[in-house]
Structures are given as structure tokens and as C-alpha cells.
């Protein structure tokens, strides 16, 4: 009995001193894992938020596609596409009439511009100092320039360049009218898409030049100033 009491006392002292008891089997308690818990209202709100984000992204993509298609449609129909309302734009417009040209111009603010035109001595590049000139104070916004070549009441060929509020009509000498009657000419000018230009930039609307004949009878570009039609716009 005394021996048992000594053993129990020794065991208690060992436990009190922090020493493990070899005869006691420890019990291990598993660690609890944290699991997120959401209420039904939170889950519904989260689903609505994700759905709203997806719908917004899809709508933005469709809007961008529609805007691009609208821009292309406007370009095809001859409308000016104003990407920057503070910039100046010009474009040529297709016409069904023979010897007729049209352009649309957009100005963000009122400005003074000159329309200039020559019907002979048209160079391959650059602009001559002398020309028929029409100077106008244009209002802000979009306007149209129209050019035609036809015969006047006396039967002489004449070019007419018209814009809101005025026009100029330089004559065409019979010796310089070959490109009109035989149709042998080449032309360049403003593109058929909306193009931005600077406030004092010279804008070439049309550069039409009569072709020359080679020794074999074919047509080729004339390197020298020649008959034709040159129309340009200059900011004043």
C-alpha cells in the first residue's frame, strides 16, 4: 500500500514538474479548418454584381462595333466623320455627273479662306502664285464646295468653283480644253475619306492634268506644266 502511494505521489510530482508520464496516452485534437460562410442575401448580391459586370462588358463591345460600322457607313455615303470637333476636316464626295466634283469641309470656328483655281499651266506639284481667287469668311460648321466644267452661253468652256456665298469661274482656252473633249487626263486631290488638316495648311482639292502622247501613241504623264484644272484652299 505504501509503495502504491509512493508511485502515485511520484507521478503527480512528475506531472507538476512538466515531465510526461510514459503510462498516459495523449489525446490529439484535430485543428479546425476555416470555412467561409455566406448568407443567401450575400450570394444573391454577388451574383447580381458579376452578371452586371459581364453585361456591361458585352454592351461596351457591341457599342464599339456599332460605332465602327456607323463610321464606315457614313464614309461610304459621303458624310464627314468628325472624330475631333476642334479639328478641321475635308473629304471628296463621289458624284454621278460628268465633269463635276464635290467636297465637304468642316471648320470648328469661323475662318477666312481663299478658294483658288487655274485651268492651264497645272504643275505636277506645288501651287502657282497667280490664280482665280475667291476669298470668303466661312462660318463654323460644315459646308460644301462644288466645281463643274461646262460651256457658257457663248459656247466656251468654263470652270465654276462655288461655295456658300460666292463662286469664281475662270475660262478655259480652246487650246487648253483637250482633256475635256478627249478625256485623256490624270487626277489627284482630297481623299474620299474624312481627313484632318491644319489651320494654315494648303488643301489640294483637285489636281487634274492633261496626258501627253508618246512616240508610240500611248498616254503618259506630262512632267511640265500643262492644261488641266487645279483647285486648292488656303487659310488666310
Overview of the molecule:
The protein is an alpha+beta fold and 236 residues long. It has 3 helices and 13 strands. Strands 7-6-5-2-1-9 form a 6-stranded antiparallel beta sheet, with no helix packed on it. The chain has a 5-stranded antiparallel beta sheet with strand order 4-3-13-10-8. The chain has a two-stranded antiparallel ribbon with strand order 11-12. β6 (157-163) and β7 form a beta hairpin. It starts with a helix and ends with a strand.
What is the CA-based Rg, rounded?
42 Å
Number of strands: 13
Count of alpha and pi helical runs: 3
Q: Mean pLDDT, nearest integer?
A: 82
Q: Going across the biggest sheet, name each strand in turn.
A: 7-6-5-2-1-9
Order of helices and strands: HHEEEEEEEHEEEEEE
**Low-pLDDT residue intervals, each spanning 5 or more residues:** 1-8
User: How would a textbook summarize the main sheet?
Assistant: 6 strands, antiparallel
User: Level of helix content?
Assistant: 10-25%
Q: Terminal Cα separation, in Å?
A: 126 Å
The outline comes out as elongated
Category from helices, strands and their pairing? alpha+beta
Indicate the proportion of strand residues: 25-35%
